[in-house]
Each structure stands twice: as structure tokens, then as C-alpha cells.
UniProtKB/TrEMBL annotation, chains A, B:
Name by which UniProt lists this protein: Uroporphyrinogen decarboxylase
Gene: hemE
Function of the molecule: Catalyzes the decarboxylation of four acetate groups of uroporphyrinogen-III to yield coproporphyrinogen-III.
Subunit structure: Homodimer.
Binding site for substrate: R29, Q30, A31, G32, R33, D78, Y157, S212, H325
Family: Belongs to the uroporphyrinogen decarboxylase family.
UniProt entry tagged with the keyword Transport: no
Pathway assigned in UniProt: Porphyrin-containing compound metabolism; protoporphyrin-IX biosynthesis; coproporphyrinogen-III from 5-aminolevulinate: step 4/4
GO BP terms: protoporphyrinogen IX biosynthetic process
Site (Transition state stabilizer): D78
Keyword annotations: Cytoplasm, Decarboxylase, Lyase, Porphyrin biosynthesis
Catalytic activity from the UniProt record: uroporphyrinogen III + 4 H(+) = coproporphyrinogen III + 4 CO2
Length: 352, 352
């Protein structure tokens, strides 16, 4: 028996490209609006209150694992609160997504962006308390995944002020003010690395870095303006903690995702999993890649699509089953349960 | 001197992968809001009125070519009005994008979608009149490009009713009602093919088929649910009219774009042009692929990025320079002029 049973879990084995007894599965947003118990809670408490209540955040985190039978827990939290101690005024409206009241627009604005130091981590203490509570209440064989937004995605939010289709403001900033961009990214790198290390200290076993918006970039621009900073974050995390680097919206960036330095490359559904795996080479695990919309179709279709993905990973260790993005709110819970069950009955040793 | 001087244009030569004297360039939305004269016109006339006035639409089409010195004209029109004679109630609000008041939601709704017959084309006569007027007023060496939305993108609009981020409703329809989807796509295929053939009869020299939203699909889903219908449209167009099949948002679909049957594959900026060209093989021309946001940066940056693209196409005939998507409203006109000039001074014969 290992001192830390989660180290022997199929999730950790897959992240390290070791053979597994069964294919591990977890789902982005597995604790979310598609669950009736989550919706009930949200009727009483706002999203931000949930994120800031360690007890509730931990409860949601743990309950989703119990309900679904998945192989990993992911901390219930949001990508953006890290921007608050950096000086941004973040608001969550009732219907609209998060809005930053003082977005960064001019190169001089970067001067007022505060890099998070050790002493500033107290402002995010509710996250670390949620980690400790969730870890204490999870079964010992279930790893807990911590996470943060990657520097590009956080910078894009800070510049746009809200979600965007074209990320026009962000790109104009990057192209027009390369020196200010570098300064902004360096402050984000240091802040994200401290935030993630504090999550690790509080008790997470793995990290997912979300670059949800980097898919808007050309490969050359990603390489020049983003890759060095994403690498810098990962380089500051302990080697024994698996890092999943997730990016959505551009399969042409997958080879660059592999250069970031994480053990696992997280891909969306826009790419054939076999092609993605070929693109990242032998020395990385892969996570993905079911289209979340598939889970809204019939049970038969869900299982057919899951089989298609699993068949493409046969005979090669290092696949963590997941969606290519978060569970959609209209997803039937029964389909999620059927998917988890199907993935767990798949024989990962069977050769192609 | 050819009977039709446009047949000897660099645009038509590039589309047919013949050597050119200079690299042809045109820009998606080259007649758009970034032009002060267009904004002046729009202060007096709504977008839909512009589209429906053959005189104004032709004038905008022709003036953009004169103003920019580009190598092709693209008809000023919108993707969606074809849905009106098919039974959809299309509205353009003042700020919001187009909205369909009676979106298609249930499989039975497909029954009421009308396939456009020859006799129904009168409802779109303003488009064909604009083609005739624009052709009559363009220099004889400038080809005029007609266009339509591809069946998937039109179907997605008909189902969502407005623009969407996840295309959740569309995918649920595709996955849950494959038979109704087939019926819907067949009606769209016949309608789009008739619409495009009527544009060709009215005087366009090339066609661009816009699949602006198909990038949301996994390659397997594109192949199964979309490719046969896109192929069916192109197969009904005369072989001597070059077809550009444009798709944005998913570089993993580029090899499938080449299977559609058009002479030219139009790509966005998310992919390295050399990689895209390798993916489509030797028997297709390629169009693209500057990020429109680059045009909002400094003139030096614009030219540096244009050079990077041109260097990747050296020594291989068949490149039409374009953006990876439409010109952004905030683009400085001078940057567009500098780009056109730079591309025209590039020596396409110079070997790598």
C-alpha cells in the first residue's frame, strides 16, 4: 500500500504513461449546472459566493466524484479571481459572464498590474482552504486536480474585460506593444506560478493549466508571444506533480502544447485523437476528446462516440478520457453516468 | 487579347495553379465598415437596404476595387437572405446581428423548409441585378467573385436562430435527428446550387463558398454529416468556374476541405500556410492567411507578417493572398493599401 494511495490511481498512472487497469476519466465542469443538486444550491447562493465559500466549494468538488464515479476530482473554482489581487475589479453579473470594470487598454496600464507575492496569497486563501477541505473529504485513492488560467488567457481577459469572439483588443495590444506585453506576461507568470504552488502546498495532486482562449492565435504568434511564458509557469512547478496543459480552438497548436513542458496535453474535439497523439510524440500523455454536445444526444450515440475515441488509443498507455470542453448545462446526468461506466468497462490492454 | 480579359488575370491564373506575374490579393469584407465612404453610406441606409439595392451593392463592390487596387471584386451581399425564400423570417436589428424569428428546432420543422426552385429565384433577383451592374462597371480584367453560405453554416443559422458560441442546438439536432438533418441538408444543397448557378449566369467569374461555422465540428462529424453535402453543391457548378471553399476555426479540417472539390482551399490564420498547403496536396490552390488583427498594428508589423506568409509560398504557383477572415471595422485604410502594394511588389517567381 502506497503512503499516498492516489499515487497508485489510474489517473496518475495515465498521466505518467504507465499501463492502467482501466482508462481513467474525469470531465471538465463535472460539478456544474447540469447537476440538479448544483442548480438547487445555486438558487440560494451566487456563483461567486460558491467559489468563495471553502465549505461549499469543497462539498461540490467531492460530491461530483461520488455522484459520477470518476477517477479524479477537480477543485470547484473560477479562472478569474486571481486577477483581483493583481488589481482588477472583477464582477459577476446574474446572467452575463464575468466583467472586468477596469480593463487594461494602454501599455502604461501594465505598471499598475500587481504581481502576486507570497504575502498576497492571503487574498486567495478561500481557494487553499477549499483544497484542504476537499482533500480531507475525498477518498484517498482519488487525486485532486488544482488549476489556473494560463498567462495568455488571463491577459486576454484583463485586456478585453469580458469574453470576446475575435480577441481583437488583445491582439492589437500584443502586436502594437510587445514590450508592455512582455511585462504583463512576466507579472502573470510569477503570479500564476505562486498561486499553483500554493494549491499544491494545500494538497492538490495534479494541475490543469487552462489556455481556453489561445486557440485564436496563429502558430507563429503563439510561439513568439505566448509559449515562453507558458513554459515559465510550468518550469516553476514541482516535477512530481503532473501538469495538464489544456488549449481549445486550434488543432494546429497541439505540437506547441507539447513544448510547454507539462506531462499531459489536453485537446478539444476538433481533432482526431490519433492525429493529435501523433503530433505530440511519444513522451506525453493526452487528455480528451469527446465533443460535449455528444452527451446531449442519445445514450447509444454517446457510447458509439466514446468507443471511437477509445479505439484510437488502444495499445498506447497515457490516455485520460475527458470531454474537449466543459459539460454543457443541458446534458442529461444519465448520459454522463453511462459514459463513465462505458469507459471503465473498456479493456485498455486490448491491442488494436 | 482574350475574349474575356479576366480569364488572363493573376487571380484566375492562381486559382488554376498557373504561374502569375504578381501574387493576386483581395480581402474578405474589402467593402466594409473600415472604409469611411462605406460608413457614410450606412448612416443613411440600413445594411439590409444596401444588400437589397442592386445599384448601391454594385457601387460598393466596384468602388472597393478602385480604392484598394485589389485583384478581384467580391459581390457586396450577405450570407443569409437565401434563407428567406426557404421560409425563414430573417431580421437585422440595428446593433445585434441577424436573427431568425422562426428557427428550426424539431425534426418535423424540416418539412416546412422550402427548397428553392428556378421559379423562386425571383425573390433573390436583387442579387443577380447587383451582379450584372457590378460586372458592367468593373474593369474587364478584374474577376467578380460570387458567393453563398455552405449548407452546414446555413443550417446552423437556421437552427440556432442567431450567432452562437458552442453551436449546441445545431449539434444536438445533427446527432439526435440524422434523418431530418439529411433532409434539411438536401434542401439546402439544391437551393445553394441554384442560387450560385444563377449568380454565374448573371456574370460572376468565381465562387466562394463560406463555411464560416463548420470549424466547430470534429473531423469525423464533418466527414459524416457535412462533407457529402458540400461536395454535392460544388459538383453542380460548372468546372470552368473556380470555387474557393473557405472554412474557419479548425485547421484539422483542412485535408477535408480539399476533398470538397473546389479548386481553391481558403484557410484562416490559425495554421502555418506551409503546413496547410502540405495538408491539401499538390492539386489545389490556397487562399489566405493573414490574421485580420495584424492589419490594426503598425505598418512595419503588417509588412513583416505579409512577408512571412509570402516566403512560405515561394516557388509553388497557386497562392491567392487574403486575410484569414473579414477586415475588422477598426482597420486603418492606409494599412490595407500598404499591404496590397507590398504583395504586388513581391516577386512570385523568386525561388525559396
Amino acid at each position: 500500500m502506497a503512503a499516498f494511495p492516489w499515487e497508485e490511481s489510474n489517473f496518475m498512472k495515465a498521466a505518467r504513461r504507465q499501463p492502467v487497469e482501466r482508462v481513467p476519466i474525469w470531465l471538465m465542469r463535472q460539478a456544474g449546472r447540469y447537476l440538479p443538486e448544483y442548480r438547487q444550491l445555486r438558487e440560494k447562493v451566487s456563483f461567486l459566493e460558491l467559489c468563495r465559500s471553502p465549505e461549499l466549494a469543497a462539498e461540490i468538488t467531492v460530491n461530483a466524484v461520488a455522484r459520477l464515479g470518476v477517477d479524479a476530482a477537480i477543485l470547484f473554482a473560477d479562472l478569474l479571481p486571481i486577477l483581483e489581487p493583481m488589481g482588477f475589479d472583477l464582477r459577476f453579473g446574474p446572467d452575463e459572464g464575468p466583467v472586468i470594470r477596469n480593463p487594461l487598454r494602454l501599455p502604461d496600464d501594465v505598471e499598475s498590474v500587481r504581481e502576486i507575492q507570497e504575502k498576497d496569497l492571503g487574498a486567495l486563501d478561500y481557494v487553499f482552504r477549499a483544497v484542504r477541505l476537499a482533500r480531507a473529504n475525498l477518498p484517498a485513492e482519488i487525486p485532486l486536480i488544482g488549476f489556473a488560467g494560463a498567462p495568455f488567457t488571463l491577459a486576454a481577459y484583463a485586456i478585453e474585460g469580458r469574453t470576446s469572439r475575435s480577441f481583437e483588443r488583445t491582439k492589437r495590444f500584443v502586436f502594437a506593444y510587445p514590450q508592455a506585453w512582455r511585462e504583463l506576461m512576466e507579472r502573470l507568470v510569477a503570479s500564476v506560478a505562486r498561486y499553483l504552488n500554493a494549491q499544491i502546498d494545500a494538497g492538490v495532486q495534479a494541475i490543469q493549466l487552462f489556455d481556453s482562449w489561445a486557440g485564436c492565435l496563429a502558430p507563429d504568434h503563439y510561439r513568439q508571444f505566448v509559449l515562453p511564458y507558458t513554459q515559465a509557469v510550468v518550469s516553476q512547478l514541482p516535477r512530481n506533480v503532473p501538469v495538464i496543459y489544456f488549449l481549445t480552438g486550434n488543432p494546429a497548436l497541439i505540437p506547441l502544447q507539447a513544448e510547454v513542458g507539462g506531462q499531459v496535453v489536453g485537446v478539444d474535439w476538433r481533432v482526431d485523437l490519433a492525429d493529435a497523439w501523433a503530433a505530440i510524440g511519444e513522451d506525453h500523455a493526452i487528455q480528451g476528446n469527446l465533443d460535449p454536445a455528444v452527451l446531449c444526444a442519445s445514450r447509444e450515440f454517446v457510447l458509439e462516440e466514446a468507443r471511437r475515441i477509445l479505439e484510437r488509443t488502444r495499445g498506447r498507455p497515457g490516455h485520460i478520457f475527458n470531454l474537449g470542453h466543459g459539460v454543457l448545462p443541458s446534458t442529461p446526468v444519465d448520459n454522463v453516468l453511462a459514459l463513465v461506466d462505458f469507459v471503465h468497462t473498456w479493456d485498455p490492454q486490448q491491442m488494436p
